[in-house]
Specification:
- The chain has 9 helices and 15 strands.
- By secondary structure, it is of the alpha+beta class.
- It has 3 domains: 97 residues, Helix Hairpins (Orthogonal Bundle); 100 residues, Urease metallochaperone UreE, N-terminal domain (HSP40/DNAj peptide-binding domain), CATH 2.60.260; 73 residues, HSP40/DNAj peptide-binding domain, CATH 2.60.260.
- The strands form 6 sheets. A 4-stranded mixed beta sheet has the order 10-11-15-14.
- A hairpin with a 4-residue loop joins strand 12 and strand 13.
- Helix 2 runs antiparallel to helix 3 and helix 2 packs antiparallel against helix 5.
Length: 382
């Protein structure tokens, strides 16, 4: 009769790996010989341990799901029904707990390296709208950690080298064994002498104080592409902070801060500007030379142009940052009415008004007026 693997751990057949681990941990705490000396409990502990080893292995679990029994002779399990996958009866409860929390059953994690990856750095750069449009190469002064020129990252004074820590013997950590109600518990903590490195520097470098790096101001050239805008970051690979112990440097990010332009307002890749149009030019029509970011363009203004008219100049906006083509330039026309007219100018305007029959303003007809006509229409419609 096939062994009920899932039933022995008390989990469903579709249980996840975490659920199987939690179920086994609970049973191990109850049945381990250090906690429960009963022979039946010891046998049960060996059995559930072997079952857990099978179900925690995806290949062996698949054999179980297909109706096989990896723990039976010839079943491919590698351990008998009463076998101990942890290597014999001398396994303590601390070993089981280390298997869950200590990195694959190995109590010692080993010393950590002094050499670590450096951090990224960020520097802002102010650009005009013209510089954002054309792109620019800028030399930037940056303050970052760089490789120590004396020890070249080792942190040791010239002619010396790191030595193995006498306290942890190079392990980088020390262990403490304690007895508790759950049995033998082994705890590990970083060595307080070498701080987990497994070695000490007897004579630190005087220039970097043993860190392997120093802070230096240097100049970095940043090639900023055309089309960037406010808040865009340009990455300079390997130009950031050098890591402790001379580790590989991080990246440097150049963040664009776009300055406000005197004439143009930016909206993505489109630009907007305003042209103040004299009343006479709006009535008669005219043309003017308009300086854009790229060139001088002829702007044709039709006779009778009204205030608020928008004329679009194609491909006169900002270039696309990642792609081809450019946005448009939208020219907003505002008709300027003179605030003071005297003498001959006033006479000519009165004569024009008489010729056009415009001596008095008229209330706009329904559907074509402004605020007051809309108010009137709202009352008439009731």
């Amino acid at each position: 009769m096939a062994r009920d693997y899932y039933g022995l751990l008390g989990v469903a057949r579709n249980a996840s790996a975490d659920e199987i681990k939690r179920a086994y941990r609970k049973l191990a705490r109850e049945l381990h010989p250090d906690v429960n000396p009963d022979e039946a409990a010891q046998q049960k502990f060996k059995e559930v341990t072997a079952v857990y080893e099978v179900l925690s292995d995806p290949a062996k679990r698949q054999v179980v799901d297909l109706g096989g029994d990896p723990l039976s002779p010839g079943g491919g399990g590698g351990a008998g029904a009463g076998g101990d996958p942890f290597g014999g009866a001398g396994v303590g409860l601390g070993d089981i707990m280390d298997a869950f929390f200590g990195g694959g059953g190995q109590r010692s994690r080993g010393p950590r390296s002094r050499v670590r990856q450096g951090d990224d750095a960020l520097i802002p750069v102010e650009l005009t709208l013209e510089e954002c449009a054309t792109g620019i190469a800028k030399d930037l002064a940056v303050d970052t950690a760089t490789l120590c020129s004396v020890c070249h990252g080792s942190g040791c004074a010239e002619g010396t080298h790191p030595e193995t820590c006498d306290t942890c013997k190079g392990a980088g950590e020390i262990q403490q064994v304690q007895r508790s109600l759950l049995g033998q518990v082994i705890t590990s903590r970083p060595c307080p002498v070498c701080r987990g490195y497994g070695e000490v520097i007897p004579e630190p470098c005087l220039q970097c104080n043993g860190d392997g790096r120093v802070r230096t101001r240097r100049t970095v050239r940043a090639n900023i592409p055309a089309g960037v805008g406010d808040g865009i970051r340009v990455r300079l690979s390997g130009q950031g902070e050098v890591g402790p112990g001379g580790g590989a440097p991080g990246d440097l990010y150049v963040e664009v801060r776009e300055l406000q332009h005197e004439k143009f307002t930016r909206d993505g890749i489109d630009l907007h500007c305003t042209v103040h149009l004299p009343m006479t030019a709006a009535a008669l029509g005219t043309s003017m030379a308009l300086q854009t970011l790229q060139s001088v363009e002829d702007l044709d203004i039709q006779p009778g142009t009204q205030s608020g008219t928008v004329t679009t100049l194609r491909n006169q906006g900002m270039p696309r940052l990642r792609g081809s083509g450019s946005g448009n330039l939208h020219v907003h026309l505002e008709v300027v009415t003179p605030t003071r007219v005297e003498g001959r100018q006033a006479d000519l305007l009165r004569e024009l008004a008489t010729l056009r029959g415009e001596e008095q303003p008229e209330l706009a007809t329904r559907g074509h007026g402004g605020l007051f006509s809309r108010i009137r229409d709202s009352f008439v419609g009731r």
